[in-house]
Amino acid sequence: MVGLCPDMATEQHTLQPRVPTRYRYRWHSAAFLAAMFVLALLALIAVIVSSRAVSTPLLNEQTMSAARELSSIEEPARVALAQAGDVQLMLPVYQGQITAIGYHPVNDPNVINLGPHGRQMNDNLFASLGGVSGSDDFGYFIMGEGGQLGSATSSIDVGAPAGTVVFSPVDGTIAGIKTYSLKGACPDNEIKIQPVNQSNLIVVLTHVGNIQATLGQPVKAGVSRLGAVRKLDNCMEQPLGQFTYDAGNHVHMQVEALNSPLR
């Protein structure tokens, strides 16, 4: 009997049965089809999301502003921003929402010059971020005249995102509410407050929307809600915007002397 070659014996034990072609690539085909299905599904989702983003944006400015106003329950700290005689103007918005504070002239002989609290920030390195140098010391900017006459600190603009809740800056009574046209281009609202024990002075706020105050209503500084900061950047350029990271939406405040009945 002829002996087996050692090499041949080894080959018989190591060789494996040949897998038929139709089975060999079956798992490859399944993986390929699964991958194609996932890609197609992702593409479909992308198309749906893209179409929704174009037709019905979920996070536009109006939606965000409404949500901000409804969800905001924070009252501002009792911090005086400025003073006119015996009247102190307290924070009208929650301090965490302030973008910048600026003063500018007003063409009105009845306006009382304000004495700013805090420190001027125009030359500060971080001016573009809005100056807040402590919980009771808010930085402020002196803005350009913009064609207005009068003292550089005739009025104060407190910047905050549109929709931010506006609170009364003084204790007093709502003495007037009216709608007017700002520079003939932007519909706006004006609120007048008679401060407590100050029959000869009136505090005027403008750029307030969604009015919640009513005529004759007693109000308390930092507690009573007047409305919300109006969005004005869609109809006018706001000077405060040069000192903020946004368009400069704000609430405007000034104090006027009452030499005659309320106008």
Describe the protein:
The protein has 263 residues and is an alpha+beta fold. The chain has two domains: 21-55; 77-257, Glucose Permease (Domain IIA). Helices cover 21% and strands 27% of the residues. The chain is built from four helices and 15 strands. The strands form three sheets. Strands 3, 4, 6, 7, 9, 10, 11, 13 and 15 form a nine-stranded mixed β-sheet that branches. A three-stranded antiparallel β-sheet has the order 2-1-5, with no helix packed on it. The longest helix is centred in the first third of the chain and has 30 residues, at 26-55. 32% of the residues are buried. The model is unreliable at 1-15, 48-60 and 124-135 (pLDDT under 50).
Report a brief summary of the structure.
The chain has 263 residues and is α+β, with helices and mostly antiparallel strands.
Individual helix count: 4
Strand content: 25-35%
CATH class of the largest domain: Mainly Beta
Mean pLDDT: 77
Shape: elongated
Distance between the termini: 131 Å
The number of distinct β-strands equals 15
Uncertain runs are 1-15, 48-60, 124-135
Please outline the helices and strands.
Elements: H1 6-14, H2 21-24, H3 26-55, H4 61-71, E1 80-84, E2 87-90, E3 101-104, E4 111-112, E5 115-116, E6 141-142, E7 155-159, E8 165-167, E9 172-182, E10 186-195, E11 201-206, E12 208-209, E13 218-219, E14 225-229, E15 250-257
Parallel strand pairs: 3-6
Antiparallel strand pairs: 1-2, 1-5, 3-7, 4-15, 7-15, 8-14, 9-10, 9-13, 10-11, 11-15, 12-14
